[in-house]
């Protein structure tokens, strides 16, 4: 089958419950299993699918991702995506009967699941996890080699020896001494105004996003999200059957006037004002005040996801939104994943008084409470000064690493990449200066051992209202977990990816 006849034979049903990317995935798989697409054949560029089927590029990329992950396709350096030659022989010889089986596999995956359940398995709404050893340029990853695990182990051993009966079922809100210490820390570091009773410890901030999405929104109610947006947020909202309203971001962060004009009925706003995920800009004070005013007038909640504000390089951070809130409409969310390590799974919310009891009840329905031992160890880690020292040390090192990355990129990739905001964080957004196929760059990087994340990963919101704003094409490069030598080496590899790439091409 020729590439163009593959597209012509594909029919997508927009009224069907099954997401479009999943339908596209099923259609391509059917063509491979049915022998219409033979091993080694090249698939059309994603843009041709978009034009012919009137679907977003993210829909095509999601379908390709799934087929690549399952081994039906392979990507190769600078040459696009091909049907895998290494498909098992029995797959290659399957004909019509098996094609029907393939169709039913898709349906079967969803059989027995509720509407809500289906939304939890929809990869467009799902988050990704890190697989294999850390390599350049994994995103959102602190350097675990810098963490004082010896100190952590000593504190943990002490609690194991002298636990004084504290390891039974605990307080669903979290370990009280930890909440007291966090209240003091958040006041000093972020100006957050709260009592320890307003703090709810969660199993990572992802659990906070899930609890807030499910407990504050009814099915079909609207939430503003930044466009582009962190996938953990859209996954939680998608699972909660909310309607997402994508709001463009610019140099000042979320465009509040646009959002208020287009989505006046929203009940909830998810925002990353300190360091927009993934583009990295800081929300201006004017926008912060406008957002607070809108939320107060419209009785909406604002979720302030302050996921990596500890890592601010150079200028000091603007005060948190929560500290400017006079009407208790901001819910402040934080995580220990960046500042300590992601596998710890500790996060927290600072709740307005009226939400305190309901959210604690909701949390206890999910998992009774977060594991007590890590909370006890963390409390000691903070009280004995290790926490403050670790932040200070890593902030300095990460700032040096970011500077090294920016310098290397300017030296060898200045024609190709423009560096985005550099105020802080663990990742740097870079924009393509020329027309490039993001997916092809990612696949070519992979072949050289680079882990690249395209900015399009953060757009294409499932079930969104209205159109997503055009978004810049580029990459998000994690630098914090890489030492300077590794950064220099990896930028050279990245340069060879661009040198070997032909630019964006249309193939018939
Ligand atoms: C915007 C944002 N929020 C929160 C998190 C952290 O999530 P968790 O606390 O569940 O590890 C991340 C991690 O990448 C993030 O990028």
UniProtKB/TrEMBL annotation:
Every HTH gntR-type domain range: 18-86
PROSITE patterns the UniProt entry points to: HTH_GNTR
Transcription keyword on record: yes
Keywords: Aminotransferase, DNA-binding, Pyridoxal phosphate, Transcription, Transcription regulation, Transferase
The keyword Transcription regulation is assigned to this record: yes
Record GO terms (molecular function): transaminase activity
InterPro entries documented for this protein: Aminotransferase_I/II_large (IPR004839), HTH_trans_reg/aminotransferase (IPR051446), PyrdxlP-dep_Trfase (IPR015424), PyrdxlP-dep_Trfase_major (IPR015421), Tscrpt_reg_HTH_GntR (IPR000524), WH-like_DNA-bd_sf (IPR036388), WH_DNA-bd_sf (IPR036390)
PANTHER family, per database record: HTH-TYPE TRANSCRIPTIONAL REGULATORY PROTEIN GABR
Family: In the C-terminal section; belongs to the class-I pyridoxal-phosphate-dependent aminotransferase family.
Protein name: PLP-dependent aminotransferase family protein
Source organism (scientific name): Undibacterium hunanense
